[in-house]
Amino acid sequence: MPQLIAGNWKMHCLAAEAVALAQGVAAGAQGIEAELLVCPTALHVEAVARALQGTPVAVGGQDCHQAKQGAHTGDIAGPMLRDAGATWVILGHSERRQNHGETDELVREKTLAAVAAGLTPIVCVGENADQRAGGQETEVVGWQLAGSLPKPFAGVVAYEPIWAIGTGKTATEEDVALMHAFIREELVRQFGDDGQTIRILYGGSVKAANAASLLAVPNVGGALVGGASLNAGEFLAIARAAQAG
Ligand code: PEP
Q1: Helix (H) or strand (E) holding 88
Q2: Which candidate in 51, 157, 182, 244 could, as Cys together with 33 as Cys, close a disulfide (CB 3.0–4.6 Å)?
Q3: Is there a cis peptide before residue 2, judged by omega within 30 degrees of 0?
Q4: For 198-214, what is each residue's pLDDT tens digit?
Q5: Ligand 1 pocket check for 204: Cβ under 6 Å
């Protein structure tokens, strides 16, 4: 399976900037073996999807509600994202868990809703700095995996240590190798043989300069990229560093 390089644009870009960024990514996608995905703010999913039609770059949302419709002011349902052209959705990002109080249980419900809507979920897990300092990182990630992933699970997991997100600090290759091996073990424990093939992305200050070494770590199935995905050239350089399938 090719590695997946996913860009999380967070709350960045006005519409014209998002379309231009998507076009920049698509323009350089030729010959890249990795699967490419960009996740603009929900408001721009439709315009970006239209701009990317006929290209190998897919579009995803950054969150969706657990219900497929209803009285939920300000929320966006999975079928709406799908209708706008998204085929993926990021769920349980640490910024959602922190800023919106999202629990493992809620992330699990959202994951079920996303799959029902025809979206492939990318479920994020990862420990904070205190938890890592206390040696609790595998315990925390183990609980998150057990609580956030429905059975069966048709999606991707992203390991994103919170202390490495947007900080310029990257987990060492050894940290990544240990955690991804642990996640693989947990996935096999939860899902049997199916757990062997679930892609596990690394996220946390990935950039062109460190992508090749991080993407070469065993059990790393790609990268979830925040800041560096806002520059098409940098994002494409990360994608070129990805391993072929
Ligand atoms: C993210 O927010 O998913 C992320 C990995 O951000 P950054 O690459 O900026 O650390």
Answers
A1: strand 88-91
A2: 244
A3: no
A4: 999 999 999 999 999 99
A5: yes
54 Cβ neighbours under 8 A, 6+ residues apart:
none
Q: Ligand 1: distance of its center to the CA of 90 in Å?
A: 12
Nearest CA to ligand 1 atom 4: 226
Does the residue 203 lie in any domain?
no
Does residue 141 lie within any of the structural domains?
A: yes
Is 93 one of the catalytic residues? yes
Number of domains the chain is built from: 1
**Does the pTM exceed 0.70?**
yes
Question: Across all residues in the chain, what is the average pLDDT?
Answer: 96
Give the ligand 1 atom nearest the CA of 93: 3
Instruction: Give the position, in ligand 1's atom list, of the atom nearest the Cα of 164.
Output: 10
CATH code assigned at 140? 3.20.20.70
- Residue pLDDT, tens place only, 25-45: 999 999 999 999 999 999 999
Pair type for strands 200-203 and 4-8: unpaired
* Structural domain boundaries enclosing 76: 4-185+214-240
Catalytic residue among 137, 160, 186, 234: 160
